[in-house]
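Here is the promised in-class demo. Please do not try to memorize the tokens; focus on the logic of going from shape to residues.
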């Protein structure tokens, strides 16, 4: 095998892997997982806000 054939085979393998990654990313079965992952930051902020509100209520009661 010469270097041209090896390069061509490598190109085809990378292209197939790229298409597989695109298919995986846009597959409708993964939508819920990706939506949950995208909203994690907002859930943490919401939890921190609730914790701060509870702390301030405790301070006001004291």
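The designed amino acids, position by position:
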């Amino acid at each position: 095998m010469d270097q041209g054939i090896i390069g061509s085979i490598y190109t085809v393998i990378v292209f197939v892997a790229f298409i597989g990654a695109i298919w995986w990313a846009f597959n409708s079965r993964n939508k819920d997982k990706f939506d949950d992952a995208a909203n994690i930051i907002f859930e943490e902020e919401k939890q921190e806000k609730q914790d701060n509100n509870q702390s301030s209520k405790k301070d006001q009661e004291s």
